UniProtKB/TrEMBL annotation, chains A, B, C, D:
The lineage of its organism: Bacteria, Bacillati, Bacillota, Bacilli, Bacillales. It comes from Alkalihalobacillus trypoxylicola. One of its GO terms (molecular function) is DNA binding. Residues 9-69 form the HTH tetR-type domain. This is TetR family transcriptional regulator. Residues 32-51 bind DNA.
Length: 200, 200, 200, 200
DNA sequence: AATGAATGAGAATTCATTCAT
DNA sequence: TATGAATGAATTCTCATTCAT
């Protein structure tokens, strides 16, 4: 990659990051190209040169966001900590500011461009799936997950928790109950009627 | 209420319903006042006469939506069916088209007017809380819910399920797994190691 | 027509006339909506309320122009003056400023929206045709036009002259030669080899 | 001319031709520098290096177009075919696609830069004039043109025909009438009352 | 000489809101 | 009360032109 290209790539990333930050703060639809331009210290036209139109910029920002999420997740799965620790991190760690942005991207993509959105979700799923399988395998092997449950359902269950706890409000309300909440994760509402080997 | 007022109230409701339908189809931010006016067969100014500005209209539409949700929930709690049936309905019945609108209202309110939003959520919670307590009480009494769990956590847990299954995509993916998913609801990932008295 | 409508129609006409004048002075593509708005003393949005988009405005202005041309032509045909006088007027009178606008409308319509353009030309032709026939009939009856010539060709021939002499440059160059030019109109390049009964 | 210059001249011509083709297809005002650059396989800046600004490019393209027209005309005059044949060719042969581009250049130049435009017209006229005189002389000598007509008027008359028949629409409508139309060219509307020695 | 990157100025268009009746 | 008409402000996007290498 020559000097031109490298600089160019860097600028593209600058723009994406600026737009991501603004999207997080004000929501996607509220942010104008001119604001992004100002924040990224480029002219509006430069943005158009790189992304052609606003939709493309949003799309690429969404991709950027998802790529980050994915690599975070993979890193977590590979970490050398006990299974319940991993789950706790996955469920409780309201990852930085990412709070509500997920839903908004989701909404935006669904409404305007459902095809691309699906494509993205798909590729994301495919990337993530193997690691999810690995995680579930680990859980089953170590006796934390019922072996009779299908991976499909387990995955949805985990994702549900992860998504839910990312909401700002929720994470607030959870603060004093996080232990209990993790326990519910494993034992459901019915609870564990036996000796608690989990030590959550 | 005299004839004037009644007619007036009817018109207000017409407008709210029109805006709600449009919000559901196109998302809140995409819908303009003029579109709402057209759909409700009134002039734009009439909308301003009733609601003063767009924000108020959205706010009232949100209230309208929440009131419906609440009364649905209360009706469900009062129904004379076994506890697990209630839960199933709550969790699996992807209530009509209401699908993603919830999240969008949520996003919108958080971003623009967090104070009012909180007020609304609060009053909503207060209205719903007693019935939730009743529901939880029923569950605990009949042995479906671990008595040691706090109502707070139980409520969040149930809401999490309810919200999650409302997403269009999710309900698609769930179709063949709904039984298993309900089971997870009660037993969590650890699963039930004993005889299954639930008969889900 | 009530007061509202009348005022509204008047405003629409104001806008069309403003845009027509500007088109004539600067050419169609050079004129922006905001300039038209300024000249018509309305806001840009008012123009959009009436015409929806720039193309529609241009289209209606074109229609307005053509309607004027047509009624001018019809008036001329109905005038009570000798045939050669009518021709002279038709050919030589470089009608006010209308100079080059015709061609520009023509170009614009061809390039962007050939369908509508054709429709307009057609309706125009249909309106004008009967009067053209009348004019030609008059010419043939009085011995100014060769009876063997087809109306089609005669019409094109006359139009060709009319169009050509409308060009600013041409009318300049013609000034000292207009008599001769009218003569050519009747006798072509070959000239009249007999006594000149026309008295042009 | 050394290699450098030759290559450079070639590139300049490439650009002019690209712009000419685009102008013909989309109209002058609709074509952007970047499109021309793409079509000519050069960078935008290269165009600026050669032509300084868009106006100059258009101007040179116009010159290029006119030069072609002129040399076509001169070739025609020099051809060894009977006079009426020459006229037919001049009048009826809707030269390739050049159709409406003439008018557009004309409009453009008039509106924006009437001075240069005049200069161009002038030089063009000067170049063409001698050959026009030759053509007219030939016509008069062979009895096809009335000797009393001024060259000025004859020239305008011929140009009028040539221009008119170049329009796409016109040439369509003319198809079945071309013979008759040529006849009108020579005899005007009054027609030839004697034996027809022209054999058109 | 040639070009990828960048931009200021301005274009069409949309929208929430107000005016006047 | 109800509404047709009108608008200021903002938004997306385009384009001729210049910068920097």
């Amino acid at each position: 990659m020559d000097g031109f290209k490298r600089r160019s790539e860097k600028k593209k990333l600058d723009i994406i990051q600026a737009s991501f930050l603004l999207f997080m703060e004000y929501g996607i639809q509220k942010v104008s190209i001119s604001e992004i331009a100002k924040k990224a210290h480029v002219s509006q036209v430069t943005i158009y040169n790189y992304f052609e139109n606003k939709h493309n910029l949003i799309y690429e920002t969404y991709k950027f966001y998802i790529d980050n999420e994915v690599s975070d997740f993979i890193k977590l799965v590979k970490e050398d900590i006990p299974f319940p620790e991993k789950i706790k991190k996955l469920i409780l760690q309201s990852r930085q500011a990412s709070a509500q942005i997920h839903e908004e991207f989701y909404q935006y993509m669904i409404q305007d461009y459902s095809k691309e959105h699906n494509y993205l979700e798909l590729s994301y799923t495919e990337q993530v799936l193997p690691y999810f399988d690995e995680l579930i395998h680990e859980g089953k092997k170590n006796g934390f997950i019922d072996k009779q449950l299908s991976n499909q359902v387990i995955m949805m269950y985990i994702q549900m928790f992860a998504e839910y706890t990312k909401k700002e409000e929720v994470s607030m309300a959870l603060l004093p109950n996080s232990e209990e909440f993790s326990k519910v994760f494993f034992y459901g509402l019915f609870g564990y009627k036996d000796t608690n080997k989990l030590n959550l």
